[in-house]
From TrEMBL, chains A, B:
Annotated source species: Cereibacter sphaeroides (strain ATCC 17023 / DSM 158 / JCM 6121 / CCUG 31486 / LMG 2827 / NBRC 12203 / NCIMB 8253 / ATH 2.4.1.)
Secretion signal span: none
Protein name in UniProt: Hydrolase (Haloacid dehalogenase (HAD) superfamily)
InterPro entries with a match to the protein in the record: HAD-like_sf (IPR036412), HAD_sf (IPR023214), PGP-like_dom2 (IPR023198), S-2-haloacid_dehalogenase (IPR051540)
Tagged with keyword Manganese: no
Pfam families: Hydrolase (PF00702)
Length: 237, 237
């Protein structure tokens, strides 16, 4: 039976384009707005706690981040935050939603090279409309065989996606910057996971690497991905 | 060539389960919170303007509604709204996100009856996670051949969905409560559109019925849908 990889799935945020850096910049602005009320580290701790608490109701994405910032501003000021500051938080979030995307180095070349020989997918979480906007802006949309915007990235979700758009998880490879979302669950589903670290990773995405796992790989950036896939396929029956 | 209908797509909110009624209740609560600052009709007018203005950045769903309420509260009070009131608005939105769904009359029976003979789809917009939660709660999930949560419902989107999961728009029928989102665009795509009015419809979903169009139908509730589809198919080659 042919076991070669036929399907390559890419994460989007911080794999193909910058994302976390805009969250960090907004958090800096958030801290400056509340500097009179609370010390920066303490504020970020409270914000992270709110994001964790709200993840199950808001899911991933900028709108939930905005709501968690507002909730945190009310909480840390014991309801004394002026409405004008809340207005500034909303404006900061709306700027994130309008920010032009910045493709990461080698992203276009890697997708292009692989799209010639493989079924190339995009698998991302976050707000539906915002992810669609970023994909449209990226100019990469036409290269993807399918785009899946999902509310969570777990082994069951990858299994479903790789069956629907590919030849099952065993013949699929996922690449992304988050070990927790892009690497561990596709490996658990039976596929390959390639980690391309990004300098900045959201605290809620941290996980330990599955060092020594035969289907786990790390690359410093996307430029080496086509060669890695080719090498893997040379060694598969 | 066989032209009989093979694919039946359902809208979710206010077609299978209650939705707008919870928005209206929250708007009442919103008006009560701001009663000291602004008269109710004027507030609803400002809120609708904010929702319209923000639709392109937030898309559909409760999170965007929460953010538009907060923005409106700041605007109508000229930045004097107390933080405690903003906290109440967030709490009201979170209650909407946690509210158990209420199936509409005949919804289960109609989906069940049609799922036996047709490919049955769910096509809905709104926040990804919230729609998934409602579908899971509805107990109807297993009856759908596919579920599409989309950021917008236009003719192009319906065309893509009916090609992907069915035999193209010409052999598909969409049913829902919104003429603008559930009826006009599938008809424009070449399919059938069935309007099942709900007592409450969001102002931004209003549209005129395509009276006299040969592929447009109206039903008072979902109980008549299986018979309508059967009748249509008897008259198609």
């Amino acid at each position: 039976m042919d076991r070669r990889i036929t399907t390559i799935a890419f994460d989007a945020d911080d794999t193909l384009w910058q994302n976390e850096t805009f969250y960090r910049l907004t958090q800096e602005r958030f801290a400056a707005l509340l500097a009179r009320h609370v010390e920066k580290d303490r504020l970020h701790e409270r914000l992270l706690a709110a994001e964790r608490r709200n993840l199950g109701r808001y899911g991933f994405g900028i709108k939930g981040f905005m709501l968690s910032m507002i909730e945190t501003a009310i909480e840390v000021t014991e309801e004394r935050v002026p409405a004008g500051v809340i207005g500034e938080i909303i404006a900061a979030g709306q700027e994130m939603l309008a920010h032009p995307i910045e493709l990461l180095d080698h992203a276009r070349e890697a997708v292009e090279a692989l799209a010639a020989d493989y079924r190339v997918l995009l698998v991302t979480k976050g707000d539906l409309l915002d992810q669609e906007r970023k994909l449209a802006q990226s100019g990469l949309g036409d290269m993807f065989h399918a785009v899946e915007i999902v509310s969570d990235k777990n082994a069951r979700v990858y299994d479903r996606i790789f069956r629907r758009h590919g030849d099952g998880p065993e013949r699929a490879l996922m690449v992304g910057n988050s070990l927790k979302s892009d690497v561990l669950p596709p490996i658990e589903a039976g596929g390959f996971g390639v980690h391309v670290p990004h300098g900045l990773t959201w605290a809620l995405e941290h996980a330990d690497p599955p060092d020594g796992h035969p289907r786990f790989f790390t690359l410093p950036d996307l430029s080496g991905l086509p060669a890695l896939v080719e090498r893997l396929n040379e060694n598969l029956p």
